[in-house]
Amino acid sequence: MELSEQQYWQLISEGDKNAFEHMFKAYYKPLCNYACSIIKDIDESEEVVQNVFYILWNKRESLRINTSVKSYLYRAVHNDCLNKIKHGKIKSLYAEDYKKSADGSFEDASKTLQAKELGKQINEAIASLPEQCGNVFKLSRFENLKYSEIAEQLNISVKTVENHMGKALKIMRERLKDHLHLLIWLLFIN
Fold it and tell me: Averaged in consecutive runs of 10 residues, what is the pLDDT profile of the chain (190 residues)?
């Protein structure tokens, strides 16, 4: 004599593993097919169905099924499939945001590294300038003094300041020719 769904469920809720195995074997494949029709992935479909049965077994004592067991199982699989789709979309969005963020971080790190390297090369180029030429260059470019102010501060003529700046810029251009576009930005934009 075959038991009804409700009788099997009663046995399952009391912890009968044989009744659970019977229900699992009876519904596993049809539920996997149903899940696959929703999420279009066999492995994920099986995972959803296994998860539904796992929850069914773990909550068997407290779970109250008001409809038929079959209806409950199909509804649970349907809901889990929808959740999986929803979480998949969310994961995709987070992955996309993370990738953009990581790419941006990489670009920022790369720019920072380039800026540090350029800064190092600029400092080396400035250090290589003759002393008076270097002083004129620093006062002009880093302290934003006018040529007349530099001339007054160093007790030299404005024409000498101009000559030192010309010489400094020529040396800097030569030393930093690979980074000339950045040097122009540094010297004239800032």
Answer: 80 89 93 92 92 91 84 92 81 66 58 72 83 86 85 89 88 76 55
Radius of gyration, CA atoms only, the chain: 38
Within a domain: residue 10? yes
CATH number of the domain enclosing 142: 1.10.10.10
pTM > 0.85: yes or no: no
Six-digit token string for 179: 């980074």
Identify which of 6, 2, 52 has the alpha carbon closest to the alpha carbon of residue 27: 52
Range of the domain at 31: 5-94
**d(Cα 5, Cα 69) in Å, to the nearest integer?**
6
Which residue, 42, 46, 2, is CA-closest to 24?
46
The CATH number assigned to the domain holding 11 equals: 1.10.1740.10
